[in-house]
Amino acid sequence: MLLDRDIKEQLSQYLQLMEGDVLIKVSAGSDKVSGDMLALVDELASMSSRIAIEKAELPRTPSFSIRRAGEDQGITFAGIPLGHEFNSLVLALLQVSGRAPKAEQKIIDQIKALKGKYHFETYISLSCHICPEIVQALNLMSVLNPDVTHVMVDGAVFQEEVQAKDVMAVPVVYLNGEFFSSGRMSIEEILAKLGDGSDVSEFEEKEPFDILVVGGGPAGASAAIYAARKGIRTGIVAERFGGQVKDTLGIENFITVRYTEGPKLAASLEEHVKEYPVDVMKLQRGRRLEKKELIEVELENGAVLKSKAVILSTGARWRNIGVPGEAEFKNKGVAYCPHCDGPIFKGKRVAVIGGGNSGIEAAIDLAGIVEHVTVLEFMPELKADVVLQKRLFSLPNVTVLNNVQTKEITGTGKVDGLSYIDRSTEAVHHLELEGVFILIGLVPNTEWLEGAVERNRFGEIVVDNRGATNIPGVFAAGDCTNSPYKQIIIAMGSGANAALGAFEYLIRN
Ligand SMILES: Cc1cc2nc3c(=O)[nH]c(=O)nc-3n(C[C@H](O)[C@H](O)[C@H](O)COP(=O)(O)OP(=O)(O)OC[C@H]3O[C@@H](n4cnc5c(N)ncnc54)[C@H](O)[C@@H]3O)c2cc1C
């Protein structure tokens, strides 16, 4: 039995929500994955009279497509959508059966209005927690528009295909046979990339805000909610709603919630903000801030938003190491997310650059998948917690190199090695390997504020205990500030603090 009892119980409740009949066409061979796939679809059919199965020859084996009875196309899964893709399977069954998707009407209209033929293929790994977002977005698009088709391909099952396409990070999307995107993408981003972006005039016409929040992670979401609850005109500009939380797998320290996962918490953040009359402007980046009579924030699309007070909450991103080869081989062997991309390096040799907690956690995680892990730490000793180090040193396939400096990531077309300098002897060595994971900390997203607000030598915005910056009316919160600790609960607290500080400023001025 492929599904355990709990999952089966959950699934049978979901399947009761199906509104029409669906046909699952299955293309199976005699291999183990085909056998498991047949077992899965048989189990599905045994749980709902609305599901019928038919053997077929699809372009990939093993694969199956879920379609409405009588229609000749549907959502296809090449491989078995369990692991993080289980929800994608459930949603596909419900949506194909006719159940209305939970999407904004504006998005549904944009999808239906797409002209032309779009055949998407998404390469994923079942342990990739950021992959379901794009799989579900493209599945939804194919349910709503008959000119859009989508296949999810499990890279672990279709290894030859993955190697032929040099896919070394997931998710990677191909459109009509051509590379389309790699990495996380929301449905709005896909539509924008297909040429359905928003109109600049829509922004130019906006009345000034009382509080404008820039950044939609935990700090920004919390600031927007606290501001809106004061009954004042609130807006939030966010390049990616959810911020780093979207990149996080398990979260166990968000107090009162014993365990949750990043994408789920990110979706709840957005839902909570939308409970209030907040003007949410997604997929927009601030590129300039200037204090005039009001505070002006210029967006990358050229529009200028005005507000009486602004809260900056643009968070942080992975730090690059800045050696030759890093940019060139990004997603071609250079990776930043071990949870997502680890399985692609199954049986291969990888390096982890960075001996702090995130680097050592990654090395432990990867050691269970890959042939060998080499950890490179710049300082003479690892900086990670002792418990993590103990666990690391108990593993047979890990080598730790302390006091070394990465010089270059080498390769042709994709990574084939890494050169480093032994800092004690200055000798240069070369390691042959297929993957390099870079985990050397975070850098604040504040470059665009150069000269506009005071920042410290790390680029963090300097704030006082009310979240105020050196510019009257400009506040900041979360990981983009000089707050000593960077955590979700701290970012949320500081967002609330900055919103209350900004509200007090508005009353006094
Ligand atoms: C892999 C990983 C695991 C983690 N695990 C945990 C954990 O288990 N528990 C925990 O408490 N913390 C964890 N953290 C830390 C936590 O995610 C951060 O502290 C928190 O997300 C910071 O929130 P923030 O709102 O300040 O910034 P972010 O989450 O970084 O959000 C920044 C927001 O600003 C937007 N933005 C950036 N630049 C611009 C611009 N110019 N214009 C407009 N918008 C912009 C971004 O798109 C995003 O919406 C983890 C972080 C990572 C990377």
DSSP strand count:
27
* Inertia-based shape: globular
Q: What structural category arises from helix and sheet content?
A: alpha/beta
Radius of gyration, in Å, reads 24 Å
CATH class of the largest domain: Alpha Beta
How is the main sheet built?
8 strands, mixed
Domain Thioredoxin-like fold: 124-193
InterPro entries: AhpF_NTD_C, AhpF_NTD_N, Alkyl_hydroperoxide_Rdtase_suF, FAD/NAD-bd_sf, FAD/NAD-binding_dom, Ferredoxin-NADP_redctase_2, Pyr_nucl-diS_OxRdtase_2_AS, Thioredoxin-like_fold
Pfam families: Pyr_redox_2, Thioredoxin_3
Keywords: Disulfide bond, FAD, Flavoprotein, NAD, NADP, Oxidoreductase, Redox-active center
Task: Characterise this structure.
The protein is α/β, with parallel strands linked by helices and 509 residues long. The chain folds into three domains: 5-193, Glutaredoxin; 200-317 and 443-508, FAD/NAD(P)-binding domain; 334-438, FAD/NAD(P)-binding domain (3-Layer(bba) Sandwich), CATH 3.50.50. 29% of the residues lie in helices and 27% in strands. The strands form six sheets. It has an eight-stranded mixed β-sheet, covered by helices on one side. Strands 9, 10, 13, 14, 15, 16 and 27 form a seven-stranded mixed β-sheet that branches. It has a five-stranded parallel β-sheet with strand order 18-25-19-20-21, with helices on one face. The longest helix has 21 residues, at 488-508. It is globular, with a radius of gyration of 24 Å. The N and C termini lie far apart (67 Å). It binds flavin-adenine dinucleotide. The site of flavin-adenine dinucleotide has 34 residues, from helix 9, strand 10 and helix 14.
